[in-house]
Structures are given as C-alpha cells and as structure tokens.
Specification:
With about 325 residues, the chain is of the alpha/beta class. It folds into two domains: about 140 residues, no CATH class; about 120 residues, Beta Barrel (OB fold (Dihydrolipoamide Acetyltransferase, E2P)). About 50% of the residues lie in helices and about 20% in strands. The protein contains eight helices and ten strands. The strands form two sheets. A five-stranded mixed beta barrel has the order 5-7-8-10-9. A hairpin with a 2-residue loop joins β6 and β7. α3 packs across α4 and α6 packs antiparallel against α8. It is elongated and about 90 Å long. It starts with a helix and ends with a helix.
C-alpha cells in the first residue's frame, strides 16, 4: 500500500514540479513595464505623426536612402528600439537586483511560496483599469471639439512683409500674410502608409528683394493626400508668382526633416520663426467625426487592456493551482 502511494506521489511529483519555476514580474516592475509600454507607444505615434525627435531622424534617413519615408516602418523601427532598450534594462536589473524584477521560487526562503500574500487583480479593478482610456476620451475629446469651435471665432490678423515688422499678439491664431513665395527654396517630402501617400510642402514667404543671407521668419506649410503622385497636387497658393496673399493658421514647429530640408536649400530660419498652415478659419479643425474616430481608438485600447489583464489573471490562477498541487504532492 505504501509502495503504491509512494509510486503515485512519485508520478505526481514528476507531472507537477515541486516549485513553479516560471518567472513572473513583481507587481512594482509590472507597473513600470505597462507604464513604459503606454508612454513609448504614445510618444511613437506623436513623434511619427509630427516627424520630430527620433522618428524625424529615421524619416530623414529613409528620405536620403529611398526618396520617401514609410510611416508604418518608421513607427515599427522606433518601437523595436524601445523594446530592445527596455529588454536590456531588464537583463541588467535581473543580474544586479533580481528580486526587484522577478518573483521566483529560488528567491524566497523555504516554505514561502512566491504568491503568498499576493492576490491577483479583482475583476472590479480590471474593469476599472480597462475603462480608463474610454473614460478619458469621453471627457477630453468633447472639450477639444468645443475649443476648436471657439477658435473659429477668433480674428484674422493681416501682415504685410513689405512694410515694417509687425508683432503678432500672443493669442493670434489666424493670419493673412502678404509677401513673396520663395519658390526656388520650397522643399517637399513624400510620406507613405500602405497605398496612401502624403505630400508635404514647406515654403518660405518673404518680403520683395529677399536674399538667402537674410533669415526667414514665416514658413508656409501645406499637405495633400492621394493614392498616387497625380492625386497629390501642390496647392495653388504656393504657385503664386509675385505678391501673394496667404491665409492660414499659425502655431506649431517645423519637423526635423523640414528644418534639414530648408537648411539644405540655403534658408536660414529666424529665431523665433512662425509656421503658417494653409487652413481657413472656417475650416473645422476638430469635427464630431474626429471625436467618433478617436473614441473608437480609445475603446480599442480599453479592449486591449481588458484582454491583457484578464489573461494575466488567468495565468496567475493557473500558477496558484500548480503551486497548490505541488505543495500537496510534497506533503
């Protein structure tokens, strides 16, 4: 009888290891991990969309090598860089202070299981965390819509570059600039994503008789989207010869590739410079359709968090069950 029981225990010990050896992150480091992923993902989208920071340098390299920059490839390369960088940090921390990173049976004294005193997240907390992106979106996005509508009521300030310099009020949003488009110094780029191409133009607008040795204070930005080069046509506003009147919205800064492109054409930017985006005051910068689209993105992140946290809770439950059976076999 005892031999039979010992044989059963031996088979059970062979089927279920005495200690659950799979490593799991500590709660503190897991919070750092999720925060890092969220922050780097958001920054990657921002950096890629505005072609600035690390993404701007990657796009510049793509333009130099291939004549165009692929948005998705840029974002993927940037995310891979963040992932490998974090992986390196994890490896270093695991060797120096492993108890900060991992919950491991070998790091605990005998008789103390890795999960003792640690409970998995409750469903209430999981639902609360998962709903956070949607909740934030439902508050922030309507506010952005209201602000956008209020901006449409702001006045349009006129600037004539042939006259003395005019200082814009700090709250200026829309301007009408009268000057000359430096057509020989216009730079353009093509950014692609799948079958969609986005063409961007950056044109200095100056006073008459301008020469490249003088700094440029006003730069006009325009873009056009299309599925081919024929669809993306340069705006007629940038093709004006002689005195031109440009209406647009001021604000923002040049992307890294735009600054490099203007410098390569011999343009010296004033400090500070003013970026003018071709956009009418009557144009709704943020519509209800935009609100719906971004709410959909927020809902996607909520579902992503829900699935990830639910899977983590399931894995934690299975690990506890294995540990419980392992302890029973040892006894």
């Amino acid at each position: 009888m005892s031999d039979r029981m010992s044989g059963t225990a031996a088979r059970s010990s062979w089927a279920v290891p005495a200690r659950y050896s799979a490593r799991r992150m500590t709660r503190c480091f897991k919070a750092v991990y999720y925060s890092y992923v969220t922050a780097t993902f958001a920054y990657t989208l921002y950096s890629t969309f505005y072609a600035t920071g690390p993404a701007g340098y990657l796009m510049q390299l793509e333009l130099d090598l291939f004549g165009r920059a692929e948005l998705k490839i840029t974002a993927m390369l940037l995310m891979l860089g963040w992932v490998f960088g974090f992986r390196l940090v994890v490896e270093i921390a695991s060797k120096l202070i492993p108890s900060i990173v991992w919950i491991d049976g070998d790091l605990h004294p005998p008789g103390l299981q890795p999960n003792d005193g640690v409970r998995p997240l409750s469903w209430k907390k999981i639902m609360g965390i998962s709903a956070t992106p949607t909740l934030i979106g439902s508050i922030v996005l309507p506010c952005m819509y209201v602000i956008s509508q209020q901006e449409r009521q702001r006045p349009v300030y006129s600037i004539d570059l042939s006259s003395s310099a005019v200082d814009l009020p700090r709250d200026a949003t829309f301007v009408e600039v009268t000057g000359v488009i430096a057509r020989t110094h216009v730079v353009s780029f093509e950014l692609t994503s799948d079958t969609l191409s986005v063409h961007e133009w950056y044109a200095p607008i100056t006073e008459e008789g301008w020469t490249p040795n003088r700094p440029v204070r006003y730069v006009v930005y325009a873009k056009a989207e299309g599925h081919s080069d024929r669809d993306a046509v340069q705006p007629i506003d940038l093709l004006q010869s002689g005195i031109a009147r440009i209406k647009g919205r001021i604000g923002g800064s040049l992307s890294t590739i735009a600054e490099n492109g203007l410098r390569s054409r011999g343009v010296t930017l004033a400090s500070p410079y003013v970026l003018i985006t071709l956009e009418s005051r009557d144009h709704t910068a943020f519509s209800w359709e935009d609100v719906a689209i971004y709410m959909g993105v927020a809902a996607f992140f909520s579902v992503f968090l829900l699935v990830g946290l639910a899977r983590g809770r399931s894995v934690e439950g299975r690990a506890r069950a294995i540990e419980a059976r392992s302890g029973a076999c040892e006894r």
